[in-house]
Amino acid sequence: MKAMQPSVDDVFGASQKIGLTRTTFLVYILPPLVCLYVMGVLVQLKGTRFYRLALLPVLVWFSWRDSESVYTALWNAWDLMVNARGIGWNWPQGIVVPKPTFKTDSRVVFVFLSAARLALYALGFDASLQIMRRLSPDTFGSLDGGSLFDHTLPPLLELLRAVFVSSLTACMAYFAIQWSYQLIAIVCIILFQQRPSQWPPLFDAPWKSTSLTELWGRRWHQMMRELLVTLGIRPFGYLFGRLGGLFGAFLVSGVFHDIELRSFGRGGNFVAIVGFWVMNSVGVVLERLWTKQTGRRVGGVWGRIWTFGWLALWGVWVVDEWAKAGRFGALSLPGDMEPSVVLASVIRSIYVKVFLTLQ
Question: What does the buried/exposed string (b/e) look like for 230-256 if buried means 16 or more CB atoms within 10 Å of the residue's CB?
Fold first, then answer.
């Protein structure tokens, strides 16, 4: 009697999940990774358009006509798999790459700097997460989740708490993306001997943004730029003009973020999540109208108030969906490490010892 093989729904479905085993890895995880790598190789070789479209790995041997180019392609394919911005490639268009604060060509120095950043960003991520959990350990701080809004509080305090948690979530997302980026950079520098110049900064101080245009166009990470241009700006721009392209980019971004939340197995509110991104496109349009009417760009102190006020107005509903899905209770660093808790305990112990000594 044959054992029942797990189906795709068993592995990825929201109602039932099974653990990652050698069988599920070989059947469901490895094939798409292999296809992704094969595509990274073929896209660099001439005369492989048909094979790329068909994506049949059994036909890869056709590309083995030039051993030197194949060797280079095999090596570079690893870079294509993690290089979302296309640093060093000829396909990114209009991307803004932030300048590093400490520029170095030494791999050793770069790895040490990245390791220090990794530690700081991981600490910031965990600290943001721990604060949110302690604000409401029985609702949105738990695995069961719950709304940001507590109707037992006075309306103003309820709103301020929701906005505060939303701001912490933005910080947490920033720290999470940063520590992940630093970790991947360290691995690629050490194992694949990539150059530090291939790993420029991911963000450009987004807290300095004085307009939505500046935030999304330059200061926030640009990892999804090529994807949004291909799936959003170009088709929507072709159909509905320049404003249509702008709307399409934010719409596609919203759809991807909605899918990401639904992949958690709980939650998902298309209107709230996609609406946040669509309203950001509306905000950018309003900035353009302001510039057209006044001849002045949005900026300065009032521009910063406008930017983060607009983000808070629409972002709180997205974070509320995260909270209801139990994301804050489920998120953690690898190995369930809690460096901020450990650091706080050490500081508390030192403070107590010093205080007792002075008594």
Answer: ebbbeebbeeeeeebbbbbbbbbbbbb
Q: What is the total residue count of the chain?
A: 359
The tens digit of pLDDT for each residue in 27-50 reads: 666 666 777 677 777 777 777 777
Q: Which two tokens stand for residue 156?
A: 């103003």
Cβ neighbors of 311 (< 8 A, separation 6 or more) are 170, 212, 280
Which residues, 6 or more positions from 202, have their beta carbon under 8 angstroms from its beta carbon?
98, 177, 178, 181, 221, 223
Helical residues (DSSP H) of the chain, grouped into ranges: 8-12, 22-24, 30-42, 49-54, 67-82, 107-135, 155-191, 212-214, 225-228, 234-262, 270-294, 300-324, 327-330, 339-358
Q: Which residue has the tokens 């770069």?
A: 110
Q: Is the pTM of this model over 0.90?
A: no
- CA–CA gap between residue 35 and residue 29 (Å, rounded): 11
> 216-265 pLDDT, tens per residue?
999 999 998 988 999 999 999 999 999 999 999 999 999 999 988 887 77
Q: Identify whether the C-beta of residue 233 lies closer than 8 Å to the C-beta of residue 253.
A: no
Q: What is the number of other CB atoms lying within 10 angstroms of the CB of residue 276?
A: 23
